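Support request, please re-run this one:
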Amino acid sequence: MNSIDFENKINEYTSKGIPYFFTIDFELEKAFVCKCSDAAKNNIFFNIKGNKNYTEEKIDKEVHLDYHLLDYHLFNKKFNLVTNEINKGESFLLNLTFPTEIGVNLSLKEIFQTAQAPYKLLFQDKFVVFSPESFIQIKGDDVFTFPMKGTIASSVPNAEDKLLNNNKEMWEHNTIVDLMRNDLAIIAKNITVDQYRYVEKISTHKGDILQTSSRIKGTLPKNWRQTFGTDLLKLLPAGSISGAPKEKTVEIIQNVELDKRGFYTGVFGLFDGQNLESAVSIRFIEESSEGKKIFRTGAGITSHSIANEEYQELKHKIYIPKS
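Re-run finished. Output below.
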């Protein structure tokens, strides 16, 4: 489905109060929408904040995951290309992402069943997502977004203080909050930041990590359901996984990254007939046509970034979350 058909179908289903599932890729080239009742028939399974369409299965396997991160010299070359653009003023923040081949003793379905996350998706045995990051949430006529920027291993001494007081992480987070405020203002009014830089802990198969998020709120027009598909596209791609300013930063991403992102860093969500929950498609594993599993991760690059620290962040995000 192309973006025009996606827009029209979302407008139709939302205005009629028909519950539906949707997902769309980063490049806005591939999309999928179906009624919730038809998702399983299309081999699509999800758990979105507890709203799920499958039966839980206990997977009695300890997770074994290894990976072959891209060569540091290649990363450093791409990093320098990005920082050159930042130093020229073309971007303030750019989320630079890479694919990593992994070895894991679980199938995509088993990863889906094993992983613990607020937003999970298994899409046609092609990819699995276990995302901690909301995109937008709509309750009544209120819209919320929860940008997530800033990561540290909880095993680091004084990890929370170091995360909250790291100038680079603080600046990066503030930039994304400002971008998402502006994005919400395209479709809503009365934009406020309800909570700023609160810390969340995520348990993984290799230890806990801490991440910082903020909560931004706006008020939608009373007739938002009539044009929601149109408005949704105005917010894409998500600012937290592209950068700022968005249009120019996306152009740099497309010139610098190794390949198209596809559904990685796109969005997916569920409309229940009244309200909407959606997520950014991060923590993403896809299966290639050769049967290889690829884990895609990224790091936010700013003028304050240090190449090796951002390279290490790619590693920190290669995990399968557990309870």
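The domain at 3-316 is CATH 3.60.120.10 (Anthranilate synthase). Residues 129 and 284 are 5 Å apart (CA to CA).
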